[in-house]
């Protein structure tokens, strides 16, 4: 009996030990393609034990014997598996509802669905939006896909014709940070002098990155200075490069403008202008992408290339009410009305190589782009200001155009731009669960000007091509990041720490002497259209920046997410700054989330703004004159009373919600308020009415001067709305996407220097009503978009509507027009400064596509199918263009563009 009792007790004891025994489970979480999933959550059912997968998808966890593991990842359906002591391979299936909106920008933890992020993020998949449109450059494509992304195409404004600077939420281009694969992208060396958007700013040339290399674009529409860098005041644009292997994708497209209402060519051989219904602005694009697998551990290298060629467009106002000269306003002929030509080609690669038997990955990406372009400067009339023209120029067919007996001259501005970038790094796992990433990113932009079919009047008419010099910008960033997921703290905690060092260098190099010199005091100085950079403009400046940051994301509960970031930076020229961000998201229900954030920002003036120096040709009311932009530290700047530049400071707040009422519909609404103190902008134009400036202006042989200054404090208010509906059934699909942005910019204060505060004229010179109107027109107050797509079988048809709200600017109108305007000073030969109104306009696109096979698809259609144009400006009741250096000719540079209807066809191949 005792033996039986002992046997029973022994069995019970062994069973109890077994029930409480712990086993070590090792495994890997993979996709259906066998790729490791980083950041997948592995939890023991019924307990608080958990871990997450590393960079390769591997994990290790200690659990009870026979435990059930719950494995999940954002964008994938969760899965339960039985734990055992053998090596597990767990395959997760993609979730159709969430797969397309995973985002990594804005977090250093695991990727999240865009509706679960605490701040608004747009996810734009390039292969879905770049084919059904006539737009062939990345900036234009994003402009129609994101609610608060804005840009306008400038015309006849020096380098602004070739660099399309984009903005977020109506702020400056240099207040948005651009990343590639999460690494900082360098800015262009260019400084915008003209235009309603980006005046006095630099920015990143998105078009220098081949579209064919990009998988998706993530646009973080919120202040992120504490997370990525002090200059991310408006937000972050993150370009994610492709990782595809084994598939060759190739696409080619053609587009051209068909605008019979306003298309005008000037034929020198005919001695007259002619109205034309022909297609112009012909554009050809070619793109290719191919990836090769490296090794047996999911390594790859992916190559991409793009070629783009776009011809000039010619637009002119032909309203016969404006002139007695056959429909052309007197003294306003301008061939520069329209886009310049451009030829561009670029290459990009993206590579990852896992090191065998380790948890370490070597990666690299980069590429180069070369761009060559031509644009017309302002047309000169030989009958006006003869000192501008040398003997012998009349009769030279290269340098003149005759229209209705009047002889005109059209200088051409050529640019050659080179852009290169290279990033390399190594990342892996330290210990059991610390993710680390060390990288170096180098980028350089070089911008070189040439003058063609022009002359230096003081030199003579023999030389017609000039090297005008230019500028370059280099940036090198070293970054180290360390992060760890701690699943046992609350519902999950991600900690990240990092260090960053950034070096920047900016250079201006002079052109040849003939491009800027004066050889005859009775004649105009320098090459017409674009006088070259002078030795006095030359600069070679640099600075460095050191930063440290801490970033934490806590899932306090399954419903409540908290995010905190702190960043400290020290500039070698502007000193120390610290920035903070707090963000949160709370799930009120399973399908309704409330989110909000509060952050600060600090942007030191760019090296371009501190050091830019140039003499350029401006036109106001038909008058042509030279303007000097002087660096902040120059004697002329101090003589004008402009103080030293200082940093911009900002406070950014947002509040909104995301809602998924049914599985196929997503709604997000986010409001924002951005206050910026001491914004760096380009001042108004000072002339000799300031006594201290008169001798300096005369010495420089210029009429006016401009400066960079912390001129204004501004506040932006706005609202972003996105409604997305996707439905697939049988062999049909429907998509309805509505995007909307309401934006308002207030000028809270003009920071007039004390030496200028006593005179209204001085105040207007510092930052005039005209300059204020331009900064307020940085983005349309209303931007609405509606995309309707319907697929059936091998066919897809769709229409896109974009509405741009009314903007108003101030510009100079030439009074000598028909019918005559009443002069403000009773002088019929002067100009007037009046408000130009551009009413809201709807642009409609129409497209179709047909899939011949799984490998070949054709797209065709028209952008702006109804040939809608902006209004002409209004001056005292008469329609006419502004005719000054800010405009594109008959229209100012407004966001919808002025080229009219654009036809296109594209072919996509996949092998």
UniProtKB/TrEMBL annotation:
<dbReference type="InterPro" id="IPR039426">
    <property type="entry name" value="TonB-dep_rcpt-like"/>
</dbReference>
<dbReference type="Pfam" id="PF00593">
    <property type="entry name" value="TonB_dep_Rec_b-barrel"/>
</dbReference>
<keyword id="KW-0798">TonB box</keyword>
<keyword id="KW-1134">Transmembrane beta strand</keyword>
<comment type="similarity">
    <text>Belongs to the TonB-dependent receptor family.</text>
</comment>
<keyword id="KW-0675">Receptor</keyword>
<dbReference type="InterPro" id="IPR037066">
    <property type="entry name" value="Plug_dom_sf"/>
</dbReference>
<feature type="domain" description="TonB-dependent receptor plug">
    <location>
        <begin position="117"/>
        <end position="236"/>
    </location>
</feature>
<feature type="signal peptide">
    <location>
        <begin position="1"/>
        <end position="21"/>
    </location>
</feature>
<dbReference type="InterPro" id="IPR012910">
    <property type="entry name" value="Plug_dom"/>
</dbReference>
<protein>
    <submittedName>
        <fullName>TonB-dependent receptor</fullName>
    </submittedName>
</protein>
<dbReference type="GO" id="GO:0009279">
    <property type="term" value="C:cell outer membrane"/>
</dbReference>
<keyword id="KW-0812">Transmembrane</keyword>
<feature type="domain" description="TonB-dependent receptor-like beta-barrel">
    <location>
        <begin position="392"/>
        <end position="865"/>
    </location>
</feature>
<dbReference type="Pfam" id="PF13715">
    <property type="entry name" value="CarbopepD_reg_2"/>
</dbReference>
<keyword id="KW-0813">Transport</keyword>
<keyword id="KW-0732">Signal</keyword>
<dbReference type="InterPro" id="IPR000531">
    <property type="entry name" value="Beta-barrel_TonB"/>
</dbReference>
<keyword id="KW-0998">Cell outer membrane</keyword>
<keyword id="KW-0472">Membrane</keyword>
<dbReference type="InterPro" id="IPR036942">
    <property type="entry name" value="Beta-barrel_TonB_sf"/>
</dbReference>
<dbReference type="InterPro" id="IPR008969">
    <property type="entry name" value="CarboxyPept-like_regulatory"/>
</dbReference>
<dbReference type="Pfam" id="PF07715">
    <property type="entry name" value="Plug"/>
</dbReference>
């Amino acid at each position: 009996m005792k033996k039986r009792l002992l046997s029973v007790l022994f069995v019970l004891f062994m069973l109890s030990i077994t029930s409480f025994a712990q086993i070590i489970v090792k495994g890997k979480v993979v996709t259906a393609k066998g790729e490791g999933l980083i950041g997948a959550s592995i939890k023991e059912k019924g307990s608080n034990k958990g871990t997450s997968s590393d960079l390769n998808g591997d994990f290790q966890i200690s659990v009870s014997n026979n435990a059930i593991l719950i494995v999940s990842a954002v964008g994938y359906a969760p899965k339960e598996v039985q734990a055992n002591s053998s090596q597990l391979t767990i395959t997760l299936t993609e979730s159709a509802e969430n797969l397309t909106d995973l985002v990594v920008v804005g977090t250093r933890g695991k990727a999240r669905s865009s509706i679960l992020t605490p701040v608004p993020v747009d996810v734009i998949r390039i292969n879905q939006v770049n084919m059904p449109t006539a737009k062939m450059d990345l900036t234009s494509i994003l402009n129609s896909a994101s609610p608060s992304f804005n840009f306008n195409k400038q015309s006849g404004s020096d380098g602004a014709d070739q660099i399309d600077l984009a903005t977020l939420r109506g702020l400056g281009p240099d207040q948005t940070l651009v990343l590639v694969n999460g690494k900082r992208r360098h800015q262009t060396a260019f400084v915008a002098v003209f235009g309603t958007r980006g005046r006095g700013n630099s920015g990143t040339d998105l078009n220098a990155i081949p579209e064919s290399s990009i998988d998706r674009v993530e646009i973080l529409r919120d202040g992120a200075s504490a997370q990525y860098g002090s200059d991310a005041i408006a937000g972050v644009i993150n370009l994610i490069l492709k990782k595809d292997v084994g598939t060759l994708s190739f696409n080619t497209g053609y587009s051209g403008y068909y605008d019979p209402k306003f298309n005008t060519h000037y034929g020198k051989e005919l001695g007259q202008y002619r109205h034309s219904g022909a297609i112009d602005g012909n554009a050809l694009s070619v793109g290719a992408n191919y990836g090769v697998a490296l090794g047996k551990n999911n390594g790859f290298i992916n190559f991409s290339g793009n070629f783009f060629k776009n011809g000039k467009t010619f637009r002119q106002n032909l309203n016969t009410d404006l002139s007695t000269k056959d429909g052309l306003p007197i003294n306003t002929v301008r061939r520069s009305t329209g886009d310049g030509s451009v030829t561009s080609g670029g290459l990009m690669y993206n590579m990852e190589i896992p090191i065998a038997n380790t948890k370490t990955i070597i990666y690299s990406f980069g590429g180069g782009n070369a761009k060559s372009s031509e644009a017309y400067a302002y047309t000169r009339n030989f009958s006006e200001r003869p000192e501008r023209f040398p003997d012998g120029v009349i009769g030279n067919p290269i340098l003149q155009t005759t229209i209705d007996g009047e002889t005109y001259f059209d200088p051409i501005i050529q640019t050659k731009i080179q852009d290169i970038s290279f990033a390399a790094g190594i990342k892996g796992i330290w210990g059991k669960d610390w993710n680390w990433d060390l990288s170096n990113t180098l980028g350089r932009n070089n911008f070189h000007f040439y003058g063609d079919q022009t002359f230096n009047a003081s030199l003579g008419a023999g030389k017609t091509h000039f090297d005008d010099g230019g500028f370059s910008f280099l940036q090198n960033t070293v970054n180290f990041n360390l992060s760890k997921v701690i699943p046992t703290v609350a519902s999950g905690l991600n900690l990240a720490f990092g260090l960053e060092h950034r070096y920047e260098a900016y250079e201006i190099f002079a052109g040849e002497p003939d491009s800027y010199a004066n050889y005859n005091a009775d004649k105009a100085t320098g090459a017409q259209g674009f006088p070259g950079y002078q030795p006095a403009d030359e600069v070679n400046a640099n600075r460095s920046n050191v930063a440290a940051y801490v970033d934490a994301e806590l899932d306090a509960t399954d419903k409540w997410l908290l995010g905190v970031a702190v960043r400290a930076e020290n500039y070698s020229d502007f000193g120390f700054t610290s920035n903070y961000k707090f963000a949160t998201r709370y799930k009120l229900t399973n399908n309704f989330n409330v989110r909000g954030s509060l952050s600060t920002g600090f942007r030191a003036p760019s090296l371009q703004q501190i050091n830019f120096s140039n003499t350029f040709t401006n036109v106001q009311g038909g008058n042509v004159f030279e303007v000097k932009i002087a660096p902040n530290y120059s004697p002329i700047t101090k003589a004008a009373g402009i103080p030293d530049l200082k940093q911009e400071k900002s406070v950014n707040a947002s509040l909104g919600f995301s809602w998924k009422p049914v599985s196929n519909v997503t709604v997000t609404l986010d409001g924002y308020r951005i206050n910026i103190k001491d914004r760096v902008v380009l001042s108004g134009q000072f002339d000799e009415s300031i006594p201290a400036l008169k001798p300096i202006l005369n010495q420089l042989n210029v009429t006016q001067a401009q400066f960079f200054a912390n001129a204004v404090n501004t506040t932006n208010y706005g609202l972003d709305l996105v409604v997305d509906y996707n439905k697939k059934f049988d062999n049909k699909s429907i998509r309805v996407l509505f995007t909307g942005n309401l934006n308002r910019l207030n000028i809270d204060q003009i920071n007039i220097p004390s030496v200028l505060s006593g005179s209204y004229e001085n105040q207007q010179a510092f930052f005039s009503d005209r300059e204020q109107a331009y900064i307020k027109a940085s983005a349309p107050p209303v931007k609405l978009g509606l995309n309707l797509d319907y697929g059936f079988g091998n066919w897809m048809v769709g229409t896109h509507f974009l509405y741009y709200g009314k903007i108003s600017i101030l510009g100079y109108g030439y009074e000598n027009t028909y019918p005559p305007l009443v002069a403000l000073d009773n002088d019929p030969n002067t100009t007037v400064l009046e408000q130009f109104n551009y009413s809201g306009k709807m642009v409609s696109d129409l497209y179709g596509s047909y899939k011949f096979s799984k490998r070949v698809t054709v797209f065709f259609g028209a952008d702006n199918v109804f040939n809608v144009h902006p209004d002409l400006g209004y001056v005292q009741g008469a329609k006419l263009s502004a005719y000054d250096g800010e405009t594109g000719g008959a229209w100012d540079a407004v966001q919808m563009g002025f080229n009219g209807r654009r036809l296109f066809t594209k072919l996509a191949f996949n092998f």
